[in-house]
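In line with agreed milestones, the collection of sequences with tokenised folds has grown. One record among many is set out beneath this paragraph:
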Amino acid sequence: MKLKNSSKEFYSNFKENLIISQKWPGIYMFKFILKSNKIKPDFFKKYFKKHRYRMIIKESSKKNYKSVTIKSKMDSPDEIINIYKDLSGVDDIIVL
């Protein structure tokens, strides 16, 4: 089955929605799922090192997954999209 939207179209629509939905710079909430213990939550520190952020980590009941929520002040939608694009290429991370 072929996807209706290409990655380029998806990010274009996502950017447009971000521009409309809030003022910039602004606080954005990132959500990730760590699929294994290969990647530790501290992994995200490098992506947010130039920002003040708050990270909340929750472990699944069977301890198979970790949910990572990061709230950080972002300067623009492009900054958010670049982080998502970069992290979507990491095998053990599910980007939400």
Summary: Residues 7-21 form the longest helix (15 residues). The mean pLDDT is 88. The two ends are 22 Å apart (CA to CA).
